[in-house]
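Sequence in, structure out. Go.
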Amino acid sequence: MNIKLDHHLPDMLTDNGDEAMSNLSSNRHFADVIQARYSRRAMLKGSLGVAAVSFMGAGLAACGGSSSSSTPGTGPGGDLPAPRLGFDAIPITRADTVTVPAGYTATPFVPWGTPITGGMPAFFDNGTNTGIDQLQQVGSHHDGMHYFPIDGSSEHGLLVMNHEYVDQRVFHANGPSGAPRPLDEVRKEMAGHGVSVIEIGKNSRGQWEVIPSMRNRRITAFTPMEINGPVRGDDKVKTVYSPEGHRTRGTLNNCAHGFTPWGTYLTCEENWAGYFRNSTATSAERPREQTRYGVRHSGQTSRYLWETAVGGDDNYTRFDVGSTAESAEEDFRNEPNTYGWIVEIDPFNPDAMPVKRTALGRFAHEGIVFAEPKEGEPMVFYSGDDAGNEYIYKYVSNLNWAPGLRGDDLLDDGTLYVARFNDDGTGEWLALDFDDVAFMAAVSESEHSFESQADVLLNTRLAADIAGATKMDRPEWGAVCPRTGMVYFTLTNNSGRSAANTDAANPRAQNLVGQIIR
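Output:
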């Protein structure tokens, strides 16, 4: 397959932080697959249901294998009855409020600014809290979250949650300043990103409350992190901060999440690319590790202008990723390569450094879910790349699951696959593996090359382009049914898909509402 990519991308910046379209490969759209498999008449009659294509369930082989298009006993008319919800549905409403079923209540809990650690500084809704305050308070724009029980309790545990981005208009008393930006404004915004770990419990009145605890902590854009897996020590992650390529600082744009059987939290770096700007490279001059992900070039500005912080040290200037010195070990040209990963956090150990697990691939991660672990079999994780025309991935550990194994055992050594869907409802998992014969044959027929597995993972999207993955309508959250093993992904939308590019898995042109795929 001859893959040609046009790296002269237009400036398609968005105010909401979503990635500009960066997949310019000729790979097939999932909508083409749907179009080939289901007629328009069948779609209108509703026979397609929620456009669920049996691809990821039991029976799908690994690289080169294919699945059955149905699984007995699990679909319509099967022998497993669907469970009923225990409450009445709520009516459609446009009210700007939280609406819950009859008999239920909703109470705000740990909103942005809630003090959880350190000096527990009070939050003021007039935007006058400082950056130092924000480092001790719950971050902004909550997204993925998970409850970890303490001693098995449903009323006492750790709430861990992501903070995806900040709204500058309300974050500061007078809104954001222009460039060059005041140092504390930038510090506050960087502290508003990341993850919060909060010990919570029910009080005597049955209400949830924050418990002051040594376990409480903030993980932000400043927090030191290990780089583990195949990319650790690679030349393309070496910076002046970590010349050996073993560490980086911070996690950004944390969207959905996951958790592990061994009790850790997985936070997912999504639209991180726009936080950086390559001041020394034009659109065409950027390396592919930046271009295929939408890192901004010299003719653009970064999303928040953090690199312009007045008097800021390299905690801030690192967001300018131009080649400003003689070597990568003397500047931050490789800083974006330390983002776009799954980050593992041990919520029960406040001294444990978060770890970026590079074997799981580098892209705009929207969540990660695992199949039910079975002793003696590999662990399998699934993740979506939340951008228009990007892909669905799975990771299979090389070690088999056994009680006592953890992330260093299972998340640093395995094979990453990308999904290709066929017109007949089957599909294939395509290995993105430097040692895989089929993948390297596809690479040899393209205009690209890879030096190592680390190079493949740093350029996961490009590797998936070359392998022949199916373009999807923004894969977001996923879930694995514990009864059937079926894997479901929400495809959010893709208003840029044309009628000519619809297929069996992405059937709608100008898709504004998305679909669910099985």
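Check: The longest strand covers residues 194-202. Confidence is low (pLDDT under 50) at residues 1-15, 43-78.
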